[in-house]
Amino acid sequence: MSFTHLHVHSDFSLLNGLAKIDDLLHAAQKDGMHALALTDKNAVYGAVDFTVKAKEYGIKPIIGAEILVAPNGMDNKTASQTARATNQLVLLAENETGYKNLLKIITIAQLDGFYYKPRVDYAVLRKHAKGLIALSGNSFGEIGALLANDGYDQAKEKALLYNEIFGEGNFFLELHDHPNYAPQKKINAGVIALHKDTGIPLVACGDVYYINKDDVDIHDTLLCIQMNRKVDEIDRPHMKHFDLSFRTQAQMQKSFAHVPEAIANTAKIADRCTFALELGNTKLPYYPLPKGKTADQHLRDMCDDGLAKYFGDNVTDVYRTRMDYELDIIKKTGYASYFLIVQDFVNWAKDAGIVVGPGRGSAAGSLVSYLVGITNIDPIEYKLLFERFLNPERISMPDVDMDFADDRRDDVLSYVREKYGADHVAQIITFGTMAARAAVR
Q1: pLDDT at residue 284, as a whole number
Q2: What residue ranges of the chain are covered by domains with CATH 3.20.20.140?
Q3: Which residues contact 399 (CB under 8 A, 6 or more apart)?
Q4: How many CB atoms lie within 10 A of CB 193?
Q5: What is the pTM of this model?
């Protein structure tokens, strides 16, 4: 009977998860697992990296997240402990609808429900439950926490509520094995009793944060950094009583031999989760073209205008040949619309009196970029290579880095959103990492 980890954190659970995606996939492959879920906290930051690398390892990726539910409503943002109370819940995308709903839930949690932490409530879950499989969470889940405090009737009420929200067969009660955590035995007994009373299925979970048991101290140090506490503080919170390592199928099967259906359900859930991110297909916003013109034709017309603007009647063969060469590659790679869109907002910014940088990075090697006004640098004069920007032997999306005056940057973003639609515009996140020296400090 195969087992699949469905409750897994990577280092994209910022200052919480220790395991790198490569290490998680390597551990899954080494143990003969065919699928693996990634359920980072309140985000799907690692989804693309996970999807790409899972393919390399021959592992089926299951995309999910561990979210926080505010049982007293996410709009309750008073200073009381009741308002701040949250419980974890794991969501897995079964299909594309589920993935889209997962993104909506996370966005609402971050933008509307944030109060100390990103949160949603039952109403949000009910509205966006379609296509999702929900797991009840560990001892910090709503049901686990109630069972730990002898609240069986309340736990049953909540279990039935979640089952109603997500639909029959889409909500599972998590079982965990943490022998050094005193309440775990009571929680598991309560979970099994709930299963018998309600028919809600069980699922065995490992709640992975790191790969090997020996990583527990490193993980503890990471949590200290997150909480701004010192390792040698006696009264600080810690997670050492939980085994958060990547346990093998054999280990999980042994731990839950008394409830084999909890193991079997991991494989059933993995089989149900068929959603896969569609990567590698370029989808550009629509650029309004003159009637009867293609994007390639219009871009060539603009380049011809640029030659006339810069050189008048003195266009040499060097420039004409280079322009034809670049346009041919742009046509073959299908990126004419990209150049048209970029020149559109760059030239709009210039016309609006916004200071625009002359161009930097590999884009400065493109004559087409120069001719249509994206850059102010003549690549032929400075002997710059176009292939560093767009290489026909290694096709990848071109990347134009532009600098705008700090005090007018929002104006440029507003223009792009208004013209191409807010659903086609995004600001790209970057992640800071801790170098060895900074981590030691």
Answers
A1: 87
A2: 21-272
A3: 361, 362, 363
A4: 14
A5: 0.89
